[in-house]
Prior knowledge:
The complex is a heterodimer of chains A (204) and B (184).
Chain A: H1 7-17, H2 23-35, H3 37-54, H4 63-69, H5 82-85, H6 87-114, H7 120-126, H8 145-154, H9 160-163, H10 167-182, H11 198-203
Helix pairs in contact in A: 1-2, 1-3, 2-3
Chain B: H1 7-10, H2 13-21, H3 25-45, H4 52-65, H5 76-97, H6 108-112, H7 123-133, H8 137-147, H9 153-160, H10 164-182
Amino acid sequence: MTDCSNVEMRERLPELLHDALSGAGRAEVEAHLASCSDCAEEFALLQAARRTLSAVRVPVIDIAAIAAALPRPRVAPAPRLLWRRSPTVLRLAAAISFISIGGISVAIARSYMGQAAPTSIDSLLTGSGAPVQAIPVIAANVDDPRDASSANNRMLIVHPSISALDDADLESLLGELDNLEAAPLAEPETTPGGRVLAGAIIGS
Amino acid sequence: MASDSSPDNQAPDVELIARWRAGDERAATQLVERHATSVARYAASLGVREGVEEVVQDTFVRAFGSIDTFRGDSSLRTWLFTIARRLVLDRRRSRRRQRETAELQDGDLATEYDALDGLVAEEAQAKMRRAIDRLTPTQREVFTLRVNDGMSYKQIADVAGTTEGAARVHYHNALRQVKETLHD
Lengths: 204, 184
């Protein structure tokens, strides 16, 4: 028995033996076998070798015993919650929540401080419940036209009960104020530490 | 087994592995049924005379215990053969340490390999058996995997821990040796 020089065909003989060739490949090898006695002999040898090797007697395998000895499958547990997977994730989430709540709180506080509710003093000044828009500081010279624009720009608001007085009423009011100044000053009371009581100052 | 044409029995190995992982223990039984005899025959071809069942069982226990390491880029049977081969070699090493058996070397196993003894009545098959017996253990293993199991050279290389080129050389040397023995 000699060896065929067509190595590719010889390499495919075991595949033909196990029916592992495609239709075209199988037809090609079978056509070669029909015309090549060396490959035909080699293929017959492979068939005989396979029969011999397959005839090796092996003990009957107890399938059930082997299956019983196998480890149990480790069924994958249900997906764990995110925070259980990593403490770092939990810490990060807590930090983000703290910063967010703190920032929102500060923003709300600033919002309230910028639009504070009217106080009792504001009510006294306006004579009503309306909030004061500006604090009167210096009386503008309204008779001077040069000051008119500046007075308007300053938005100087005078107490409505005063601005509604005419000249006679104002003079009468000033006179009463003069009488008040003529009244004797009360001696300011002092605390043992020497502090002037607020009430004395207010009374002056 | 072979006569069972139910869809379950025709399911690919990878599908059965996936089902076993999901908790279906019947899938493991089907895989054992499908491959146990091949593993036993391969173990016998390696010269195992006694304890073939033990080798087969240990092979499957080890395989299913580390099924997560099975990448699926080779066939399950190739992987099982690889495990069985390691087990056989481990057993031999263990016995060698106990001075109960000879070392696993080429030539020595030619006398050790007698799993076919008394199994083939036909004269032609007896001659073939003797021809195969005269192969070196490596040649015999490669020849068996190629001819009896239909493995590619790559699969043989994976099982035997060698290269495709070396597997090809061993196969052709074995084939030449068998031809010469048959014509003596």
